[in-house]
C-alpha cells in the first residue's frame, strides 16, 4: 500500500513508500521505483521512465486544460441531457466531423410525411466540435421532453451532406423491442422518483472473495432475469455462501445478448433487458446492506462496431472515438479499438468510470481485455513466455498503458477504497503496483493460468499422471507484491464449447447419478471428491483473492449458451438451475455446502490476505501436498487408491492441532474417515524444514485443514 510520499532531505527526486506492512523502501520519482522491488527490471528503466513521462504529460494536460481529475472525469455532467432549473433541457454532443445536427424524438412535431421534424431543434456547433441545443419548457412550465420518450441526434454527414440518425453517445438508457427492430433506441431518462441509497458502502475487504454473476442468467426460467429478481433471490444466496464481493457482468448496454456483454454499444446505459437504472441501484444498495462489495465488469478494451445503435461511424468518420483504418479494428473480436491518446475519447472513458462510481455507487471494476489495451498486437497469435523483453518493446501500446495508468490513478485518488482488477494473460510486470512507483496501478490481476492448468489436467491426464510439483508451481508462480485473484474456473470455462470442472469430472453420469436415491458410482464419488479438493487448493494456495462463477460452486451441470441463431434462440442453457441445489435429494447440495465452508473458513482465518504459503511437501509418488498459511496446515492426498496412516507432516508451530476442514466429512458427501473431534500432537523434531512434525491419517482423495488449539477460531462443526 502506498503511503503518503515523504521527500528525503538529501535527494528531492526520491520518495519513501511502504510496499508491505513494516517494509519501507526509497524509490525514484521518475517511474522506475518498481525496479527497486524487482531488480530484473533494471535493464528496462529507460522504457519505464518513458512510459511514466507519457502518463505525466497527459495528467498535466488534464490538469491544465481539463480542470484536473475532478472536472475532467465528469463529462457526463457536460455532455448528454440535463434538465435546467427552469425545466428547459440542455443537450450537448461531440461530433467534430459532422457539419450539422438536430435533436429529434417523440417530443418533436411531425412533418407532413410523419417524420420527426429535423428543423425544430437545430443544434449549434462550437470551436471544439461539440453541438448543443436548449429545448425550452412547455407553456405550463413542465419539461418538454417526456420521461422515457425516444430521442435521437440527427447528424449531417461530412462530404455527402446526407443525414444519419444516431443514439446520443452519453445516453443513460436505451431500449430494444425485438418485435419492431433489433436496433436499440435511446430514451430521455428523467424519472420523477429516483432511487435513494440507504446503505453505506462497505469497507474495502482485506480478503476478497468474488462471486462472478450475470443478472440475465440468474433465473431458472427460460427468459432473461431481472435486477429485482437478482436482488430478491440471488443476493441472499451469495451472502449465505460467505462471498464478500460480487462482480456483475454484462451491465453496460450491449445490443447482442449472446456477446456476454462484451460488445458494448452504449457505455453509460445499464442494460435495459434486466430492468431500469433505479432497479440496478437498488440491487447495489441492497448488496451494500449485506456487507457485500460490488464491482462492475467494465469493457474499455474495445466497442461494438454497430453504427445505428453504437459509437462506430458516429459523425460519419471511422476515427472519432477510435483509431482510423485497420489500427482501429480488432480482427478477432470484430470490433472497434479506442484512441486512448485523443482528448475526447480519453474524457469519455475516464468519465465513464466516474459515472458508474458516482451514479450507481459501484465499488470498483474488473477491466476486461487488458492485454488488448497493453499491446499493439492485442495478444492475438502471441504467446508470452515471461521474457521481460516482451513487455518493453515496440509492440507495447504506450497510449494504452498510459490510459490504464491514468484510470487507476484517478480512481484511487478520488476513491481510496476502490478495487481494480486486470484481466491480462501476458503477465506484464508491475501491472499491480501503484502508479507513483511506475506501475500500472491495478489492485489485482486474474490468475488466468490456473483454470487452464486444471482443464488441461482433467482433459489430457489420468489422475495417476498428475504432477504435484507442476500443480504447486502453477499455483504459486506469481509476482511478489502483486496480488492475484485465483479461480479454478470462471465464465470462460462454462461457455458452450468448453466444460465446467464438474462436467469434466462427471460428464454424462451427472444426469443419472446425482440423486441420493441412486448409487454413488465411482465416477460420481471421484468427481465430488476432486471438485472439493481442486477448489480448496486453488483457494488457499493460488492467490490473494478468490473468484467463482455463479453456479459452479455446486457443480452446475452442462454449459452456458445464450439464445442465438445457432440454437434456435433457446434459453435452455442461458439460465441457472437453482432447484437442483435446493433439492435435498440431490447431491449438488454437498458441493454447495463445501463452497460455503471454504468461504466461512477464509473469513475466519484470512489466508487470502496473509503471506504466501510455505510449501513443505509435494510428494510425487504419494501424491501428497502440505503447506502452511495464516496459521493453518493444509494437507492433500490426491492418490487414487492409497490412504496413509501415521503420515508425517512438518509443521512450524508446536502444540495440539485440531480439525478445521475435512473434505471427507459426510456433511460434504465424504466417507467420514477422519475423526473431526480428534487431536494431533507435535513432536519437537525438524521435518521438511519445519521445526516440528505431526502424524496424520490422510485417506485417498481427501484434504484436511488443521490449526493449533489456541488458534482455533472456526471449524466445520460450526456449520451444523
UniProtKB/TrEMBL annotation:
Organism superkingdom: Eukaryota
BP terms from Gene Ontology: glycogen biosynthetic process
Entry's Gene Ontology molecular function annotations: 1,4-alpha-glucan branching enzyme activity; cation binding; hydrolase activity, hydrolyzing O-glycosyl compounds
EC number annotated for this UniProt entry: 2.4.1.18
Reaction equation(s) it catalyzes: Transfers a segment of a (1->4)-alpha-D-glucan chain to a primary hydroxy group in a similar glucan chain
Domain Glycosyl hydrolase family 13 catalytic: 224-701
Cross-referenced CDD domains: AmyAc_bac_euk_BE, E_set_GBE_euk_N
Top-tier EC class: transferase
Record key words, sorted: Glycogen biosynthesis, Glycosyltransferase, Transferase
Pathway where it operates: Glycan biosynthesis; glycogen biosynthesis
InterPro entries from the UniProt entry: A-amylase/branching_C (IPR006048), Branching_enzy (IPR037439), GH (IPR017853), GH13_cat_dom (IPR006047), Glyco_hydro_13_N (IPR004193), Glyco_hydro_b (IPR013780), Ig-like_fold (IPR013783), Ig_E-set (IPR014756)
Entry GO terms, CC: cytoplasm
Active site residues per record: 368 (nucleophile), 423 (proton donor)
Family, per entry: Belongs to the glycosyl hydrolase 13 family. GlgB subfamily.
Function: Glycogen-branching enzyme participates in the glycogen biosynthetic process along with glycogenin and glycogen synthase. Generates alpha-1,6-glucosidic branches from alpha-1,4-linked glucose chains, to increase solubility of the glycogen polymer.
Protein name as catalogued: 1,4-alpha-glucan-branching enzyme
